[in-house]
Write a structure and sequence with these properties.
about 150 residues; alpha+beta; Alpha-Beta Plaits
Length: about 150
């Protein structure tokens, strides 16, 4: 009987400790967070809206359009030759060479519609053996400011 009373007393003591434990313990304490950063970050954040704009004040954004791919292959000199050949005939049309290992791509023009690209494609039939129209991001032509 003495052992039974001792066990009950022990269990009630353990139950008391478990019940009152949350009152005495704290998992976290509130504190102060200090952010350490370079002051240039604030300057960059302030300049962010203006970083995508060119000197004329227009956004230098790209839009969806089409280009003619006049060369695709692994020979760098052939890619530059194709670019030079095209630039001789059409100096006002921009050309782009990209390299994605192991191939070079030569793309020409910034056309908003497929019809514009097809017009140039029909003119180039005698000049290049194989070429095709690629839907891609283009650099939109600069709008001319009118002085009215």
């Amino acid at each position: 009987m003495k052992n039974a009373l001792f066990i009950i007393a022990k269990l009630s003591l353990v139950g008391c400790c478990i019940f009152f434990m949350p009152l005495f313990s704290s998992a976290q304490t509130r504190g102060k967070v200090e952010v350490v950063k370079d002051p240039l970050i604030d300057t960059l954040i302030a300049r962010r809206p203006f970083l995508g704009k060119n000197l004329g004040g227009e956004a230098a954004a790209s839009s969806n359009g089409y280009r003619l791919q006049i060369y695709f292959g692994s020979n760098r000199q052939a890619a530059y030759n194709a670019q030079a050949k095209f630039t001789e005939e059409y100096p006002e049309t921009p050309t782009y060479i990209t390299y994605i290992e192991p191939n070079f791509k030569v793309q020409v023009g910034d056309f908003r519609t497929r019809l514009e690209a097809q017009k140039l494609q029909s003119e180039l039939k005698d000049m290049f053996s194989s070429f095709f129209i690629i839907p891609t991001k283009i650099n939109p032509p600069k709008s001319e400011a009118s002085n009215d």
